[in-house]
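Work package 3, deliverable 3.1, input record:
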Amino acid sequence: MSTVAEAAAARAAASAGPEPVTFAKALTTAMADAMRADDGVIVFGEDVAKLGGVFRITDGLMAEFGEQRCFDTPLAESGIVGMALGMAMNGMRPIVEMQFDAFAYPAFEQIASHVAKMHNRTRGRVKLPMVIRVPYAGGIGGVEHHCDSSEAYYAHTPGLKVFTPSSVADAYRLLREAIASDDPVVFMEPKKLYWSKEAVDLAALREEVEAKAGQKAEGRAAVVRPGTDATLIAYGPAIPPALAAAEAAAEEGRSVEVVDLRTIVPFDDETVSASVRKTGRVVVVAEAQGFASVASEIVARVQERCFHSLAAPVRRVTGFDIPFPPPKLEHWYLPSADRILDALDDLQWED
Amino acid sequence: MSTVAEAAAARAAASAGPEPVTFAKALTTAMADAMRADDGVIVFGEDVAKLGGVFRITDGLMAEFGEQRCFDTPLAESGIVGMALGMAMNGMRPIVEMQFDAFAYPAFEQIASHVAKMHNRTRGRVKLPMVIRVPYAGGIGGVEHHCDSSEAYYAHTPGLKVFTPSSVADAYRLLREAIASDDPVVFMEPKKLYWSKEAVDLAALREEVEAKAGQKAEGRAAVVRPGTDATLIAYGPAIPPALAAAEAAAEEGRSVEVVDLRTIVPFDDETVSASVRKTGRVVVVAEAQGFASVASEIVARVQERCFHSLAAPVRRVTGFDIPFPPPKLEHWYLPSADRILDALDDLQWED
Amino acid sequence: MTIPAEAQEAVKRFGISIEDYMLPVHGQIQILSEDGTILPEDQRGSTPGHQYPVPSDKELLEAYRRLVIGRRVNDQNSALVRQGRLAVYPSSHGQEACQVAAALCLRDGDWMFPTYRDAVAVMTRGVDPVEAMTLFRGDWHGGYDPHEHHVGIQSTPLTTQLLHAVGVAHAAKLRGEDTVVLAMCGDGATSEGDFHEALNFAAVFHLPVVFFVQNNQYAISVPLAHQTVAPSLAHKAVGYGMAGERVDGNDVVALLAVLDRAVSLARAGSGPLLVEANTYRMQAHTNADDATRYRNEAEVQAWAAKDPLHRMRHYLTSTGHLTDDVETAFAGDAEEIAQHLRDGLSVEPQLDPQDLFRHVFTEPTPQLREQSAFLADELSREEPSQKEH
Amino acid sequence: MTIPAEAQEAVKRFGISIEDYMLPVHGQIQILSEDGTILPEDQRGSTPGHQYPVPSDKELLEAYRRLVIGRRVNDQNSALVRQGRLAVYPSSHGQEACQVAAALCLRDGDWMFPTYRDAVAVMTRGVDPVEAMTLFRGDWHGGYDPHEHHVGIQSTPLTTQLLHAVGVAHAAKLRGEDTVVLAMCGDGATSEGDFHEALNFAAVFHLPVVFFVQNNQYAISVPLAHQTVAPSLAHKAVGYGMAGERVDGNDVVALLAVLDRAVSLARAGSGPLLVEANTYRMQAHTNADDATRYRNEAEVQAWAAKDPLHRMRHYLTSTGHLTDDVETAFAGDAEEIAQHLRDGLSVEPQLDPQDLFRHVFTEPTPQLREQSAFLADELSREEPSQKEH
Ligand SMILES: Cc1ncc(C[n+]2csc(CCOP(=O)(O)OP(=O)(O)O)c2C)c(N)n1
Ligand SMILES: Cc1ncc(C[n+]2csc(CCOP(=O)(O)OP(=O)(O)O)c2C)c(N)n1
Ligand SMILES: [Mg+2]
Ligand SMILES: [Mg+2]
């Protein structure tokens, strides 16, 4: 976890002024602000009310908005998502929490067959402004079924938007956008970042979002570190090791750009392609098992669009194609800065 | 459907001797043969017993093997898969049928969290010799939820093998191998091929399989049409249009090789790469929506392994990133020979 | 557990236990005999806490009119399948009493969540018949606006729609509206996990949802005995602290009585209820199915004798409410709708390939815009002759 | 429905209805009072068809020994978490009577399907305690061979294991074996769809599965009242045509009586049964949880008075079966296991990175072989110092 903490600290140090805020706090604040702004926004799931969620992301919402707007449900994920769909059909903007990645699987039919398709099958007559929050990925020493990276299942399902913030500001911004979206959003929260801190002025962000002042983050990848020699394309939990690798590469005299997708669906081909055309060398970094994954998609898109700019094959650094390992073995699995550096080294610099 | 029928007819005509057999019949025969060979092989699901399945793939099994070995369950897919897992733990080799692709989604948690992981989490002490048969994909004019291509969900899940035959002989061979496998296999059956026919001697195949004479099909892609100028990589329902495109290309003087993966997991990098190195030009064809799909994976692997052999970016012809269309619109969605030819034309032949 | 006020009332008034309140009657509620006479009160299967008044003659005559129309719609649609105008049609022939009662028991603001088999209920609720057939014609997944008549899109993934019904009711309740939601499914569908979750959520949140199970004895080829060994499907209510009731599903009088009361109990705050209607699917599962593979003609014939239309016609004729003139008028109404179906479905629908991309999201993503342009380009390069698919 | 022979027997003998057979007793079966005396027969909560003999003294003494060990194991493991030797431990402190009875009611050939909280039951069944802790130490997902003691891997995805239990029972039944399977879950878990599907499959296939629900009043922070409004969880049996029973989950005498009968009914062919034990999770959900956020100390203290060990100690002492010597011997047995846990868990497990790839399939795929080589290469290039993670 040191990499994560370090990267967060580095980012925090970089910006001056406001108090350090955790990723978790940004998410909580985003929900609270949205609930203040719109009575239709409600939050429910397992343990989200009195307990404030097992990660405390919904902490304080029941106290402020009452048990009608923040409540616990019976323990049944398909029930939670299916009921949310009905509520969204009938004027609400539900935000539901799946307690852990793998515990969203019981809701898979509701998500794939209904949430993703309702707008389309009714020719747009039924809108589903709902957010499915999924704490995901590893790096927290969680036991089996608590650390899956499940974004590919959702990204592969047409009709779902898939957001995944990696910075505190994006946690706030993207969650506000997800709640405001008339389309269903699967909101993937990298668990290991919950406790990361950055100096972010949430009040200023709120104003910006509510005034619709800034550019939307949806569909816009961010160049979180500029560079000229190679591009790391990553998202969510893979951003900290990518940044750490870029930092280390810089010390070795290599200028590495890091692109954070921020939203997997919609995908920002423009930003990604611009970076690749500039650098000509690419490593895609993702924590999920690599086979038929979002990382595969990024590789496919990049070579389709930037083939002649590529000086070397696009490399992937992803999780292995194995079930997420037990706590004591996860460090061998997680994409590390070293592993990313190895991949960067492999990009045929000699040519 | 004319393409399918034509391709099948062409293949049937090509081989001489045995009677034409349908793809469906090959599957039924594979199960019956396995049941005869091993008492532990049992078949269950919705409507598989008396009715013989809505596609009649299990027709006759209850009559021959009795209601203990081929039976209907209550209507609950998670129940079917979860129970199958328990039976596999306790000495049986269950084959379960999911009635249609999208109706396997209720079983997603059982498949992803248990079927895929049981062997691993118990350090191999629990083996799960079970087959989950999934009729999939379109081309049959099915209404919504009846034509999903769901192979990527399974292929992305470590611990599952994913087989998908496209020929009558492979239907038999791969299903026998799946049943014989001590690992769980998701067996994806392209619905539109059920009624395709080829002249195949099933008795000879049975002997070959039971004598373990031939090479295993698992993990071995097949070059179903040799060629030298470009490679089409496809599987399952995409094989007929790929073959039709290759045929049409030949008329235009272009020699196109067609590789049928046969099993997505395990993946045959060797055969695929060999073909790509030879031709230098590739189109990946798959019916599923393309984003974060098996097709993405194939593209990623090919460019990783054969980058310097590629004369042009690897192109994809896949379904669009939309919910599977209603019957009257599906022809605009399905990868057609024409669309594949367009993609082939795009492979920068001028360079 | 918190016992709902209505239940407390029943428990007090009839001196029954809370379980008696929840447990359905042992047989089933039936008011109209198979030969079309109103049964004496003590032969209706009712027990203390489970007594039902006979609906008004006016209500019954209108119900009969709807039955006639429903039967005509079923037969017309089956014919349209044979003529190739529809791709598939899951007929509710024989279940029209359930279909009609499900629609008539609701008010305008109420919601209905139907399955693929409930097209007649959907139309009875006011949805245009041709729009309701879009799904089965195959030019789009759903043809009507669920918000217009408060009818969910007909659901194919079994049982999933019950949870949507629960959500709609929950939203209404949070806003203080008195909406009742009727959630429909078949006997087979009760085995799915979503059935359990929907009933439990409705009960725990104390929502005005009436779960209406049409037990037509089969799930495709699988008979009820392979689906459950419970005394009845209505008994499943007990496990959720909910009241269950069982009713003759071919007796529209009993159906209206039971559903009317269920809806008014729910509206009054009783929490959800479960109603099982005992009926029969007279035809194959769909035109693609061959019912002779799994059931015999004698069984079908035994149920033919209980035909819901036949019983009502006999009853209403005997009471003088149904004269030949009225019968002719009803037949005319039915024929008008059949004609509308024939007309509407004989026109080839205008298909726009760009519809593929239009509704995936409220705004297409850049990826979808690209794919849409790709298809437009492909089509523009096609020979004119090929354009007509 | 087909009424199982045992049920028919009860129905006949006691003149009760089939619903009475299925419905649990209104209160709960309790044999041992909170202060440790055997209750008179008419105060045990039983009704006709629901009468239970008191297990033998020998059985009870052994049960008490297991309780002492179970409590020690819980406390030892909690201590090991604090010492950093375990990553997490969901303690069954307060639920040891359920844990012990669940294991003791089974024969060798029978199967048990436990949850993450059932480590004490797993050990009582014979699994090595250190192996059972592998999951919570974090060096592998499961530490024991499920086939060795016929104990499924402790399941985290809630309720899913009930279906595996059903499958194991089904396979045994098809082979004509008389295996009984005990399938365990918590109160919260009963809300999942898989609960419904598992109970229904077991009932329809008439399988010898005893579903054993430890209702410890909470699912993490969510109290039972937000989970269900049914009269009891045992009432859920009715909806599957199954008999349900409710028992004091802190009374090992009643638990053994009820579970022994359930197991022997199941073995004799009654089909499945559902037993709900009313108990309490005395500690937080896991060490990571803060129970003060959602429940108050008074409630916890009220349950402390019902402590399962305390009651049994009092009873066995009063009957003279438990002398100081015996008590000391039991404490010694417990300490031995605690020591074994301390020893076993103080050794850093040998970790082999190649284990990541070894068990995904029976034979690694070419892809896994490649990835395994990749990792081996990476590790071989690392500084020796970095190798020790
Ligand atoms: C989740 C799911 N599984 C399987 C199917 C396939 N299927 C369609 S209808 C049907 C039978 C449904 O029976 P029932 O609920 O009794 O309704 P009925 O058709 O008799 O009205 C099945 C198995 C489906 N549509 N959805
Ligand atoms: C499918 C699934 N959803 C959510 C969780 C997260 N979770 C773990 S334990 C728990 C509460 C379980 O409560 P209960 O069934 O009463 O068992 P107890 O912990 O009280 O023994 C929850 C919600 C999970 N493990 N699996
Ligand atoms: Mg039915
Ligand atoms: Mg509990």
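DSSP finds 14 helices and 14 strands in chain B.
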